[in-house]
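Human: I'm a chemist; would you kindly supply sequence and structure tokens for a protein?

Assistant:
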Amino acid sequence: MTGNNADFKNNGNLSIDVSPKYFASGSMQCRCTESDFKCLVEWANLLLIESDLMSNLALRCTVAIAIMAACAIGHADSYTGSQSTTYAYPKLITDFTPQAHETRDPVSGLLHPGLGLTKTQLDTMQRHVRKGDEPWASAFDAFAKNGRSAPNPRVYYQAGWTEILHGRANETGNFITVRMAMDADVAFHQIVMWYVTGKELYRVNALNVIRNYFSITKVEPHWDSQIRWGIAAYKLCLVEDLLRHTDGNTEASRWTESDQSRFANLMKMGLGLVADPGYWMNQHQFATMGLIGTAVALDDKLLYQKAIERTTVNSAGQQGGRNGSIKWQMRLVTKDAETGQQVDTPQVQVVEMARDQGHAWIDPTALSLLAQVAFNQRTRVDPVSGFPSNDRNAVEVFDFLDNRLLAGADYITRYSFGEAVRWIPVVMSEGTPPQIGTVIVGPPRQMTEGILYNYYRYIRKWDREDRRFRAVAHAYESIFPEGDGGTDMQGNATLFYTPDAGLIQ
């Protein structure tokens, strides 16, 4: 049995995975906090497992009541709405309403703002949060409580940094770019806070974070530089895109021509760190995030087209193996790599699942983000080559290769929710001999794909029970609203990408 915000499965043990929700009873407003709710769910599940070992009918009934109570709290929001909930964030909102100035560069054809967020997405978020509409209100309330959204966030930059040099983990270059990525996430949170609230301090904070790193004069390859620089560059470019195409209230918060020149120089210095098409699986995706962010910031059409093709096929990388593109990471497996025999029923698998689940979940998450950038830019691709195209048969990156990205997300989501999915051995890296992934490695790890949900639910208008979409839809709804993406990812898809049609009445 499955509901909108809970997923029940019976594979020996009945378990529940539901999110904290809000409910009202008459004139009394009640809130089940996230910690309270998780404790209740954990307690119920533990008792249920124990009760399987006992023939105590009373205990089993008690557990059933606990589960129903948890689900009642979890589902009350769906039936009564949550606009009666009192949030803390409204006191942050000012009379000033930031506005983005949408423009398309006449040479590159790139849309601004249009990296992670467009003017339409920003304004939809801003309008609904200020009105207290759900689900944006609860999503922003959680976003505003993040420490990096605070008016005085911790910044990791250290005065005197001028060179990012070679080095091992936690040394020299790696030490700096790890912190640069964290600061990029701080700036990202701050600029979103400013756009919603209009509070100038947030914009100044975001601006200062970026200006800190103008001190860098030299960048060299270093440990995990393709990952750390890719993450940092993507979010810094997203913040730059918003600063450059919006106006602050004071001179101190203005993005200047000098800022733009110095930022462009910083991004150019790091391009070599993310240029190689042969990075390992999810590392390829992080590097491509940095590449596409830099392309949009520099209005570099050729670099942007390269980043799109690296997202879809990455023809310059291994054709199979470690390739992190949609085509090869979300692989249609037709042959057993151990036996060399063709399989009777080919299927799409997330190749990195043969490594571990923590890294494997990066694949649909990062590729979804890259697909969202292409969608924001109104970029379609050739249905075979994956190169940007304006031909009549061109498709959205989301739809590329018969919705291959969604098919991979569906596969790993079903596994993460306990389904015993079939695995076909695949080549994980070409070589002599090739590295073969013979089995799925690691226990299920439940994650969600809010970007995919909002695209297929509201843009493509698929039914949430469509077999191709059902697992992803139910996974997203089980944790609704989607939380933060941390330093590495963007997250917050409920806040950023829910369209007007997603309004909860």
